[in-house]
Amino acid sequence: MNTNEQTMAWMMDTYSMHMRQTVTSVVTGKPLNIGGSRGRIEATGRGVMVVCDESLRYLKLPIEGCRVIIQGFGNVGSNAARLMMEHGYKIVGIAEYDGGLSNPAGIDIHQLIEYKYRNGTILGFRGAEATPSDELMVSDCDILIPAATENVITSRNAERIQARIVVEGANGPTTAVADEILAEKRIFIVPDILANAGGVTASYFEWVQDRQGYFWKEAIVNEQLETILRDSFDDVVRYAEAHNVNNRIAAYMLAIDRVGFTIKQRGIYA
Fold this sequence. Notes:
By secondary structure, the protein is of the alpha/beta class. It has a domain at 43-195: 3-Layer(aba) Sandwich (Rossmann fold). The chain has helices spanning 5-19, 43-59, 75-86, 109-119, 133-137, 176-184, 192-195, 197-212, 218-243, 247-266; strands at residues 67-71, 90-96, 99-102, 129-131, 143-146, 165-167, 188-190. The protein has a seven-stranded mixed beta sheet. β6 (165-167), α6 (176-184) and β7 (188-190) form a beta-alpha-beta unit. α2 (43-59) crosses α8 (197-212) and α9 (218-243) packs across α10. The mean pLDDT is 96.
């Protein structure tokens, strides 16, 4: 959090000076001209869109006109909002720390991004009505995407959440107690370990490109990212069905199972 390409460039440079050679693969999220990857900036938001697509497919719901509320309009939230709007979703609400916006007909995200760039805030944007962020979190929608900080869905508001699907674009946005409440309400949750994995997946791609000294076209990065996330989504929901657990527990079980199986398959050399 609170870092950008310049921060990553400084970290790479500091490490490289100590190593007395340029080591681009030590960190990711760098500028393109010093070993960054195309598509990295949008990767987390793109991953959020992919798992939203997969959630609707799994639940047999249409994308066109699907109403989405996004909490947070930083890198993850803004890119997810833009990509999803372009893909046919209707972004009806944006909640930020200093206030929110709503428009039942859909917010023009391109205009909102430009407005925030010029003004440093989404407040005052004329393409939507000012709405308290707390109110937006519990407003009627098809998909709710917490995409900022942790612990925004708690025991205080979980019972009032009306979304059919919650996609956790942020890390740890739902408390343990709230998670149980949402489960009782039969809300379909895509946990953070899966929903926001687009960023770290693209970071892996950046590391691979740095190591091999060959950089991919953005279309290849996006294609590989979407393939991995779609396959991962299918693996998690199949595991949830097979073991009669929710998606979060299924993701944890699947991860542990994979590590355990690999260790057993490899053997332990001592």
